[in-house]
Amino acid sequence: MWTNAARWFKDMSFKKKLLLSHLLLACLIILSLGFIYNHIAYKDRMDNIRFSTSNILHTNNQLLDDRLSAIESSMSMLPLDYDLLRAVDAADPTSASSLVRTDRLVTPILFKYFSNHEEVYSSYVMTREYGYGSNALMYVPPAEFYHSLLAQAAAEGRGAEVWIPTYSYTGMYKQEDLRHIPLEYESLISVVKQLNMTAADEYGNIHRLKANQAPPVLLINIRPESLAAVLDEYVQHNDYNQLAYGMVNRAGVSVLRLEKGDFAHTRTAELPAVIGSQEQGMVIQQINGQDTMVFYEKMKSTGWISYIEIPIPAAVSSLQTLQITTALFLLSMALVSVVLAYMLSSYITRPLTRIKQGIRQVEKGQFDIRIQPDSRDEFGQLTEMFNEMNRRIEQLIEENYGSRLRARESEIMALNLQLNPHFLYNTLSTMYWIAMEHGQHELARMMISLTEMLQITTRNKQELWKLETDLSWLDKYIYIMQNRFENKFTVEMDVEEELFDTEVPKLFLQPFIENAIIHGFGEMESGGRLRIRGWLEGEERMFAVEDNGKGITHTLMDDIQTGEIRSTGIENVDRRIRLLYGPEYGIHMQRQDSGGTLVLIRLPHQHSPNENTPIQ
């Protein structure tokens, strides 16, 4: 019997074989899924809920932690602000006008630190006499503040940031007359910090509050709605008919809570005791008479506990619809299998025929041919690969043509760059003769100096040139600058002659001379002195640029040398020297006790750069 059946199956047509195979496969799938579907569907659903909900809770916690940690970072910087210390220290608590003036000084400082934090609703520096800060948004009475748990928490924190969960403004500050007025800031979350201020002035001197002066308190107010916006997206766009999302502090006090469905009898105050010292996880509790999954995770910034509550019946309610849909799908598979078996042979051969026709077109040089894929299976992928191959061939052809075109344009640009300096020299020469004809000899000399400077720089394409050439260029540059600034400064140059024939980095002194003239002598009417020196010291060449201007501040000098403030000319020269000669050479700047700035430049006593110096 089995032999006859095998022979009968072998003699069947290909389409009949496919039809019978699909019918048997469909029946096997229906019977198998009927037994195991409920168990697998339930387990998968619960696993997906655990995974997705934990990820959402963790992601939102990270987002809130980043925002709240940024606020804490700004708060930690405020006690170091010298302008704030000076303003608070100078306030006269007995003078109303002094307090108002201090408020005008403190408010912009707070704005500087906290305006970029969109969660911050208002900020204050609180003293017992006055609350400096966002009084235009809301008013915080100083007396009531210092009798509230906010001030108590700040004092207990001793300079640390202390987060206060959601509270009522009218209740906290005993504003009974405002209870019936709808206030935008009725519900607030706050963070307080005792400001034990210690700050350094621009000269590095350390300042503190007066010994008899109580440290003020920094008060940052946040509306719960600004934090709830992060959670609301998940609450409103999920497929559960019941869900709660919120936060409580370590004492179980609710910070904020969003609900979907009926959660009238939840017990979130018990959550800290239930989870103990665990940082994150999931527990199942009886809430409103039904088993509820409670996902939780502690926030790193505030120590609060974020949680999501999902009743298990609500989590698996969608399975009923899925079961009905799957049953209909399984029943329809038998019918679909018959149709698929009939269409499979033509389905397999049709895309192969189209690809074969496309290859013939490519053989004739038609690389723009494209085949529209009918599906996303292996045949569709093969079709896409054929189309991508043709697109790549077209692209390579276009890139080859484009590269030749760009090379041609580069040649034309190079010719233009060679012509431009000659055009500039000729123009300056013409302007020189016009100035001479009109008796403007100083203007003519400045034009000649500028022309010679341009000729020197454009004719010398190397990284190095002789010191004599560099000093000749500087003579012309200084002459132009003396005329520009109406001879408000004099220049003394003292360079040992044996250095003239040595090679130096091109224009390595110019940025420092320019800084001395523009910044050092900028506020002087006359009397500026600029001294340029060069000498041999052992196996090193030393160069100094010294001025008697206003001098660079220590703070600015440190910022330039550490890279916090970019000074293009100084940084460029220093980097060039280190790349050419090694990291042991370079530039040193210092402020002189008598005023002015001294720049020292160290170069090795050699005619060529160190070829072994690595590029940094």
Question: Any descriptors?
Answer:
17 helices; flat; five-stranded antiparallel sheet; Heat Shock Protein 90; about 625 residues
Shape: flat
The amount of beta strand, in percent, is 15-25%
The main pleated sheet reads as: 5 strands, antiparallel
CATH topology-level fold name of one domain: Heat Shock Protein 90
Q: How does CATH name the architecture of one domain?
A: 2-Layer Sandwich
Question: Any idea what the radius of gyration is?
Answer: 40 Å
- Report the end-to-end length measured between terminal Cα atoms: 84 Å
Tally of extended strands? Answer: 19
Spatial strand sequence of the major β-sheet:
2-1-7-4-3
Q: In CATH, what is the homologous superfamily of one domain?
A: Histidine kinase-like ATPase, C-terminal domain
* Percent in helix: 40-55%
Q: Segments where pLDDT lies below 50 for 5+ residues?
A: 405-420, 609-616
